[in-house]
Amino acid sequence: MIPAYFHKYPKTLLNKGTGFLSGYSHSLNPYAGCSFGCSYCYVRQMPVSVFRGAEWGTWVDVKMGAAELFRTELQKAKAKGPVTIFMSSSTDPYQPAEHKERVTRSLLEAMADDPPDFLFVQTRSPLVCRDADLLRRLGDKVRVSVTVETDREDIRKHFSPYAPPINARLRTLRLLADAGIPTQATIAPLLPSTDKFAETLQTLVDRVCLDDYFMGDGSGGKRTRRMGIRALYEQLGLEEWYDPSAYRVVRERLLKVFPEDRVYISQAGFEP
Ligand code: SF4
After folding, report:
1. What distance in angstroms lies between residue 81's CA and the mean position of ligand 1's atoms?
2. Radical SAM core domain location, by residue (predicted)?
3. Which of 34, 140, 203, 212 could be disulfide-bonded to 190 (CB atoms 3.0-4.6 Å)?
4. pLDDT tens digit string along 120-167?
């Protein structure tokens, strides 16, 4: 899907970390909207999408002048206490537009010059590898979490047809780890996967986070129910995966190859 792009000058960039992200002092979104438009994305039910009046996934705002504004806000925030940043809470910071726009890169340049206490980067895009030089400069003050909801490409295409392929994400994890950048594979939301998934991840990362709609959509699964996501499972005859207990199956598989303290469940896997 090619979205409509809008270039906007934001008044603020750093938002207070709240709810699921209350462990962070701030969240940071270099873009508004998201061209990946995943079927299960609950951001489509949040004000940023609801008041837009256009379908989630069809529009992206590019935040102009972001680095300059961010540098000022970071200074002010640092004067008040530790600054821990989650990037991003309601978009993917590596939109396809980031190839050209370089908003996220400009923010990372600002952070490399003046590091926050911690930065968590959440993405599903291989484009994050472009910024390995800047991420490396943050040392152990950064973690890059790459979403890999499943190891089945047919499942990925069913639920998230406009997002990057699974193999590209697995390669991304390898490249980041080889560059010495702290990484995490994030199975969120949990989608149907094979019994080889855990072993595949074990060759790439030493830390995994597992989350599902029932723990992680901020409403005990109600938002996801309202979006009718169950129907997507029914189309595949895989309803047993749309269940609050399904994560236990994958957790068991992970625990066969990862130490228990490297398998994080829901919010614990996103903490600073
Ligand atoms: S990549 Fe993330 S923010 Fe974008 S549509 Fe998918 S779940 Fe939503």
Report:
1. 30
2. 20-251
3. 212
4. 999 999 999 999 999 999 999 999 999 999 999 999 999 999 999 999
- Domains with residue ranges and CATH for the chain: 4-270 (3.80.30.30)
**Ligand 1: does its nearest atom lie under 6 Å from the Cβ of 34?**
yes
Residue 266 has pLDDT above 90, yes or no: yes
* pLDDT of residue 85 exceeding 90: yes
Does the beta carbon of 41 sit less than 6 angstroms from any atom of ligand 1? yes
The residue with tokens 């499942």 is 155
Q: Is the pLDDT of residue 208 over 80?
A: yes
